[in-house]
Specification:
- By secondary structure, this protein is of the alpha/beta class.
- The chain has one domain: Spore Coat Polysaccharide Biosynthesis Protein SpsA, Chain A.
- 29% of the residues lie in helices and 25% in strands.
- The protein is built from seven helices and 13 strands.
- Strands 1, 2, 3, 4, 6, 7, 8, 9, 10, 11 and 12 form an eleven-stranded mixed sheet that branches.
- A hairpin with a 2-residue loop joins strand 8 and strand 9.
- Helix 1 packs across helix 4.
- The radius of gyration is 19 Å and the shape is globular.
Length: 310
């Protein structure tokens, strides 16, 4: 059986969240954070490796709050845990970060931070997003069963299941082909609820629209494509001076969209009807805690999260 890996991008700054590190906020009664639920669901779905992408300045807190616990749980299930640093200065030969830049290079570069570990099919997720069991099982099954090295997958969530009640968000609205493959992603800003409607900077949106929440499944053949794309991004940004060198990011959805446009890859959309939860704003903490308490009451998770994996 194919080995599959989970890459958790946990190096984001979270500027809209306020003080504190949102990826490390406790949401479960036993102190579990959102990443715990992702790791739990990934192990349950049969993932073999977990790769955390973090920053040096949060490493101590990360290890104390989740890292050592995950290592202990994963060790009992024969799952390997790795850590890689998302460094601003770790760039391809010939490039240096512009003076004064502090913002990370984006999700594409975050994945490349662990390139040396990506020998097997792998799934990429955000640290502060809860995706649900269905999505993990679907992407795991797809990667294990697919024999096309240039065919990838993406978990698609219903827009109505992905909104915060505490502010507007940006969502990547997906367009599918008739046979269930991704045609394009349209980044739409200002998405928010207005009574029974969902509005955005472009007008009303259907709650049933499928959106990307940055849960992607790739084969190892994606890595050299990503490396080449990042180099071209740096050439445009730093040599040709196209864009803002202080803030422009190399983002997976944008890069995937470009590959789709040039018909270099295929991406299967795997619909999940699970409710998404995330910490975009500090006001999201209490509603998310209540949501996990409700899932525990329903028996979806145990009071001591990992006890069913012993």
């Amino acid at each position: 059986m194919k080995r599959i890996s989970l890459v958790i991008m946990a190096a984001g700054i979270g500027s809209r969240y306020g003080a504190g590190i949102k990826q490390l906020e406790a949401v479960g009664a036993d102190g579990s954070i959102i990443m715990d639920y992702s790791v739990h669901d990934a192990i349950e779905a049969g993932f073999n490796d977990i790769i955390f992408v973090i920053r040096n300045d949060i490493e101590d807190d990360f290890m104390e709050i989740i890292g050592r616990r995950i290592e202990n749980i994963a060790g009992h299930k024969n799952v390997h845990v790795y850590y890689v640093n998302q460094s601003l200065s770790a760039l391809p030969d010939g490039f240096r970060p512009p003076e004064g830049r502090v913002k990370p290079w984006g999700t594409g570069k975050a994945v490349l931070s662990g390139a040396s570990l990506l020998d097997n099919p792998f799934v990429v997720i955000n640290a502060d997003d809860y995706y649900g069991k269905e999505a993990f099982q679907k992407v795991a099954d797809f990667l294990r069963n697919s024999n096309d090295r240039n065919e990838y997958c993406m978990a698609g969530f219903c827009l109505g299941n992905t909104l915060s009640d505490n502010g507007s968000v940006t969502r990547g609205v997906c367009k599918e082909t008739r046979d269930g493959y991704l045609s394009s992603i349209d980044e739409i800003t200002g998405v928010h609820r207005d009574g029974d409607r969902i509005l955005s900077d472009r007008g009303a949106l259907s709650p049933d629209s499928l959106v990307s929440m940055n849960m992607w499944g790739f084969t190892r053949e994606f890595v050299p494509l990503l490396e080449d794309g990042f180099r071209k991004f740096l050439v445009r940004l730093l040599e040709k001076k196209t864009g803002d060198p202080m803030s422009d990011e190399f983002l997976i959805p944008v890069f995937v969209s470009d590959l789709l446009k040039h018909r270099k890859i295929r991406v299967r959309v795997l619909r999940s009807d699970d409710q998404w939860y995330g910490l975009t704003f500090r006001e999201d903490v209490e509603p998310v805690r209540k949501a996990f308490a409700h899932m525990t009451e329903k028996g979806i998770y145990r009071q001591e999260l990992y006890s069913d994996l012993d």
